[in-house]
Structure prediction request, 221 residues.
Amino acid sequence: MYILKKSYYAIIPANVRYDQEITPNAKLLYGEITALCNEKGYCWASNSYFADLYGVSKVSISKWINQLVDNGYLTSEIQYKDGSKEIFNRYLRIVNVPIKEKFNTPIKDKFKDNNTVINNTTNNTLDIPFVEIVTYLNDVANTNYRHATKKTKDLIKARWNEGFRLNDFKTVIDIKTKEWLSDNKMNMYLRPETLFGTKFESYLNQKGGVKTETDQYSNLF
Prediction:
């Protein structure tokens, strides 16, 4: 496979460089994605492209991307072919001012003085992975909800603005699906209105819940 090596500059900001929850390879991939985003405002490259570029497996690329998405540095939008779950396109976008609840970096104090930027970024619906959250629910719970429904988006946005992130949504979905899916009386509650409502934090901290480790996008493209 021919690899087109772009001449654009790669940018890795301080809060990404010093984030101890992200592996060095994920940070390097972040820089590559910023370079590709310079052309169209988003990165269209597949996992296969990055795997060939760095000489690693698509599973490794998927894990690095998931780290960046889960920690709020990227958003991922998946487009499916009409009438199927076959992936047609994926678009990765840089979150302009990535903000995390926990900082272990030298720039922590700098962000304390800029609450306006933090609030605006948190409320920017373009940074919320509605598609990935609802797609994960549909795949795990065997449902068919739409990510564009206003009620569903409002619920996800409300929890996102409270500081919960993609991994939290997946954990709640995993816990309640394991508990309710085989229960004929309870499986009707595997829906956004219930899962992403005001009891979200209680579900997230529920004892006895076991999170699955399924990586549904490990072989993307």
The longest strand covers residues 87-94. Residues 128-209 form one domain.
